[in-house]
Design goal:
301 residues; mainly beta; Jelly Rolls; Endonuclease I-creI; 2 domains; nine-stranded mixed β-sheet; eight-stranded mixed β-sheet; globular; binds calcium ion; binds zinc ion
């Protein structure tokens, strides 16, 4: 069953108090229509970052109540299809991002998207890597702004969360209260200027409740790699969590000793930066899928 959810149903924080926009069964698909991270406020040359309503940034479409999801379960999200609009927005400026101290004004530009490329200027066309920036569930306690990443997912800005990826999130409250938004037509690791190529679009996902498996933090599997994702105040802390989560996963699913796991992860694993510009920073630790396949490890089934 495929449900459709329009971008009229949006949230600015992941919270169990939000009213569900849709209630579905495990195994159903949902096509989410999404606004861009500026709630589509910048559409023409005349629209400026300076007059933006900052109360209306990072909307996520949802939330969706998944029947049968209970605290302690895992929500398996298969990204079936991402469709993006025909123009994107890039933004940066004074005090924004890693280079914010070198700028005096705010800057935003609308870029056309044509023939599988973002037209950056007359000389540079950027290949698309469409991805989902904000994707998550409601946390157990107080709501968390859609601009902040965490164990519940949220604004992870992780390039691997793209078509054909499967994301696993811990469920904290009954129903999960899943939502997503903040698509990027293209983004590089780090998102150093504070935005990717922000774009409105549609994402079709399959949502499944997985019982009897646990994850403390988000986990993503692409056709090539499996990665733990962690967010913390510093990159060092986030790195420590992402690495330990992968070591835990390998300890639970293989007979390898911790020394063997450490040497294996050191030899084939990649510690990578997802983003450094959100309220918490996000890193991931990825290993090639054939490593897990050697031990017949299947996530979420
Ligand atoms: Ca984002
Ligand atoms: Zn974004």
């Amino acid at each position: 069953m495929v449900h459709k959810l329009s971008s009229d149903h949006y949230i600015f924080s992941f919270a169990k108090e939000n009213k569900p926009a849709l209630q579905i069964n495990s195994g159903d698909e949902v096509e989410f229509e999404t606004m861009d991270c500026f709630a589509n406020q910048i559409c023409t040359k005349e629209d400026k970052l300076g007059t933006l309503d900052w109360e209306r940034v990072n909307p996520a479409t949802g939330p969706v109540y998944v029947n049968g999801a209970e605290a302690g379960d895992v929500l398996k999200i298969t990204i079936k299809e991402i469709q993006i609009g025909d123009q994107g927005v890039v933004a940066t400026g004074k005090d924004l991002g890693v280079l914010g101290h070198l700028m005096e004004d705010l800057y935003a530009k609308v870029l056309p998207i044509k023939d599988g490329q973002v037209i950056f200027n007359s000389k540079i066309a950027i290949p698309l890597n469409p991805m989902v920036g904000v994707i998550g569930v409601a946390p157990a306690g107080e709501g968390i702004s859609c601009g902040t990443p965490g164990a519940h997912g949220g604004n992870m800005d992780t390039k691997l969360i793209a078509e054909n990826a499967v994301l696993y999130l811990p469920v904290f409250v009954d129903g999960a209260f899943f939502a997503l938004g903040d698509l990027h037509a293209a983004m590089g690791d780090g998102e150093i200027g504070v935005s990717g190529v922000e774009v409105a679009g549609k994402v079709r996902v399959k949502l499944e409740v997985v019982k009897g498996k646990k994850t403390k933090n988000p986990l993503v599997q692409t056709p090539e790699v499996t990665a733990t994702i962690a967010s913390a105040s510093t990159l060092d802390e986030a790195a420590q969590i992402a690495v330990e989560e992968m070591a835990n996963l390998l300890q639970r699913t293989t007979p390898l000793s911790i020394a063997e796991i450490a040497t294996l992860m050191s030899a084939v694993g990649n510690l990578q930066v997802s983003q450094v510009v959100d309220p918490l920073k996000t890193v991931r630790f990825s290993i090639p899928n054939p490593i897990l396949a050697s031990y017949g490890v299947k996530l979420g089934s």
